[in-house]
Known about the structure:
Blueprint: E1 11-15, H1 19-30, E2 34-39, E3 52-55, H2 61-69, E4 73-76, H3 83-92, H4 99-105, H5 108-117, E5 125-128, H6 131-141, E6 145-149, E7 159-162, H7 170-176, E8 182-186, E9 192-200, E10 206-208, E11 212-217, E12 220-226, H8 233-250, E13 254-265, E14 268-277, H9 287-290, H10 295-304, E15 317-325, H11 332-337, E16 341-345, E17 356-366
Parallel strand pairs: 1-2, 1-4, 2-3
Antiparallel strand pairs: 5-8, 6-7, 6-8, 9-10, 9-11, 9-13, 11-12, 12-15, 13-14, 15-17, 16-17
Amino acid sequence: MTDRILGPGSTLGIVGGGQLGRMIALAAANYGLKSHVYAPDQDSPAFDVAARTTCAAYDDAEALAAFAQSVDAVTYEFENIPRATADILARHAPLHPNAEALSTTQDRLSEKDFINGLGIPTAPFRAVDTPDDLDRAIEALGLPAVLKTRRFGYDGKGQRILRARAEGDRNALFAEFGGAPLILEGFVPFEREVSVVAARGRDGSFAAFDLCENEHRDHILALTRVPAPGLTPETARAALDITKRIADALGYVGVLAVEMFLVRADGAESLVVNEIAPRVHNSGHWTIEGALTSQFAQHVRAVCGWPLGDPARVGGLSVEMRNLIGAQADDWRALLAEPGAHLHLYGKGEARPGRKMGHVTRLGGSAGA
């Protein structure tokens, strides 16, 4: 498949129709590109801003082939599309990020094996396929620990903290997860969660946004602060280095995020990788107003074969991004009236509890002031 550089007027295919696909399509339009969005749900928010749409299942080989043949390159907005879907797309159009990066990062076991293989630390872990495996994993890792599905978990879904050995019948626990392959992760005594959002171009160029600090509530990202306050410059550089090593090893093209735990012991800071998101990321939404190049524009640049943009913060200002979850989006009038608040709503119809409906970004004073 010829991976030519796309020019203005080309069509970018986006697999997935959520808010991330919507914001990629909006960024593409600013560069004179058209977007064709493929998603299985007719009410997908990205459909509202795309030049063309295909509503079909991710296992519809005929629809996937027709979609890929109608565009100049394909990307995706989330990592839970099947590997088989990615392989079909790649036969008909350049696909970025590549199918191997998708496959590696969408399974927690293969992802952690990959990260550890680079000499980068993660939480200790064990594969869990049977109740007996779970007993052995608990024996090896101790408690508390986190039992997770290996695939398709996000925003706290598909996981459970185990705090006591007698907690629940093992067979009942497996039934609770629907028989899915599991992984047990040892508990990391972290001080806070941080992330790096970065891009890698087709030519191997690399550009990272500043290290973010993230606060979660009910397992959902609530607040991102940039730059992450109170960390040493050495820790920030180490986080960016970890991200670059991961992107290079994956042969990655596009934007990715690497989520990490900051651990402090005897006054020293260290980083433990939690997971990789092979896509634009919620903790990078601040870049729309807060950086010279947004993560969405950066992703479009990378997958089109263009030079990467400058990821520096605008004016060196600190930035705060807050998610609007469920009914919080009902405050849109007050947010619009707030000086300096930048409101983004995703066009979703129903404000269900736990559903990301939008976000608001505020630019503050100079970092460190």
